[in-house]
Every structure is written in structure tokens, then in C-alpha cells.
Task: structure prediction
Amino acid sequence: MNPITGGPRSNQLLAHMRANQIENLYVLGNHATPRHVDFICRSGLFESLWFDLEHFDISTRDLAVLNMVARAFPITTLARFKATDYQAVMRVLETGVGGIMCSMVNSAAEARQIVEWAKFNNPSPERGEVTGLRGWNGGGIDGAYGTMNAQAYVRHQNNEVAIICQIETEEAVAELDQIVAVPGVDGIFFGPGDYAHRIGKLGQLGAPEVIEAMTLLAASCGRHGKFWGTLGPSPELYQKVRSLGAQLICPGGDVRIMLNGLRELAKVFQAPAATAPHAHHSSDKVAVTLGE
Result:
């Protein structure tokens, strides 16, 4: 084993998906900070983290730091962004993330292009290894700053970094089976919020039409040996998507934690007057010192 690199790390998320296990995914955007990542990782409640570069201003420099914090734990990191060009894909991969989640993939042609940008050419591919035309640079975080054997680096990137395409539109659902079948696409993440919005069911993540699309996705992934995931923001919806076969399920993340925590904290001083042991007069004030 290389004393500097410790050797490349196998992808826990892919291993779990191949073993037909469930992973709970936590999303960070508004509050994507090193300390928040450390806090969530230390909780031991989630197996994977999703950094949302699509909706939030997380630079690749910041992403690299967030990812390095997470790597101290048995956590897989995913970066979600719109894969519009080769450089965008390559730079995200070089931060060392465990996978990329590509938003708004509407066709098999787009999925094939993403795979080509994300995979290296390999003159001696392993059985089942999908190759591409990614530009060479073994000096990034993902290549252990040039200390990893070149062949091992290529094999690891091609086989141990997840490529997930997001299905979020009617156009994508119409070409669903072709997208799922693209070699090199490991899994699909269904975006119920955007899909519901597109079909005129804004905010109705559990609408019958949304569930129908997920059912089609589940069947397609089953045919092609791919995993799929989606959101499960309520106990009812979580159990529903799990029953449909979703393996990578996101119940929420930093914004929801902040809102729920704030509301829970406010219960301390928003209790109905009837629940108080007695009504205080102005002369009965009690001083309370909070630690935070």
C-alpha cells in the first residue's frame, strides 16, 4: 500500500446499490460548510451526501474542501450540477467526489456525452469497464496529487465513480428506457419536484402522475440492471418510493434541518399560556441564561 495515498477507496454507494441495499442521502446547498458536513457525518445517520451545485453557489474549490472533510468518514459524496460541457464535468470529478448527479438529462444522447466526458480511455479495460475521452490529469485530488499509479487511477475513475442521470421532465420520461440503457450510467435519480411542476402539479410530489412516472422508471432500471433514487420527504412518501424499488432516497437536508430545528426551538417560548404552571406578573420575571 502506498504510504501517502493509502490506495484508492472503493465506492461504498455503488457497492450498496449492487447489493440491493438502501442508502439515505442528505442534501447540502444553502448551508454547505465544512462544519455542517462534519456535523452530519458524525451523526452516523446518513451513508451519502449530495452537494447541490445546480441551485447554490458552491465552487469547485469549496466542493473540494467539503469533500475532503467527508472523506474522514465512511461517507460517499455526490455533486449535483448541470453537465453542460466537458470542463464542468472534469473539474467536479477532480475534487475527488464519489459520484456526479447530472441534472435535467433529457435524452440518451446527453447521457452518452456525459459518460464520454467522465470516463478515461483505457487501452486495457476491465471486463464491463466503460471508457470515454476524458482529458488526462493525474495531479488532482482524485489522483492523489500524482502519487497514484496511472493505470490504477484510470481504473478507479472508470469503475468506482458513480454517474447518475436525473430524470425530471416529460421529454426525459418519453426517452426513459434509452437513457437508462446507456452504458456507463450507473443509476437514475428522479426529480419529483421538477416533474410535478412541469406537468402542472406544482408541489404534489405524491400525485398519481408522478408515481406513475416513477413506476415506469423502476421497471426500466430493473430491465437494465441499474439502481434509482428520488426524494422521500415524508414518512409516507419515503415508504412509497421504497416500495417501488428506490434505493437512494433523500428525506431532505440542511434547509429542512434548519427550519425544523428553528420551529422546535421556538416551542420553548411559544407554549400556550394554558400550559404554564401559573401566569407571571411583571414582578415575577425569571432570568434564564442560555448556553448558545
